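Journal club prep — side note

Before the paper discussion, L.F. wants everyone to see what a predicted structure for a comparable chain looks like in token form. Sequence:
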Amino acid sequence: MTVVPSKRPEQQPFPQLPTHFDAWLLDCAPLPDCDVCGANWRQLTSCKQSGDITQAMRHATEIRDHASGVHASPSN
């Protein structure tokens, strides 16, 4: 009996999401003139282009959290 070694997690191909599902996951709006938002946006774009939607989603979450937390206007 021949045992075929399984691929390690880092060798697995990136998952393919249903059409337009990634647009919902990656929906975010970086704020202009914010270095943190800009850096996350550049990383999101790079990950998206390479097909790493999981990491791109993490950057989108960072942008949403940062924009709604640090840049949120105080309530009156």
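L.F.'s comment for the group: The radius of gyration is 17 Å. Keep this in mind when we get to the figures.
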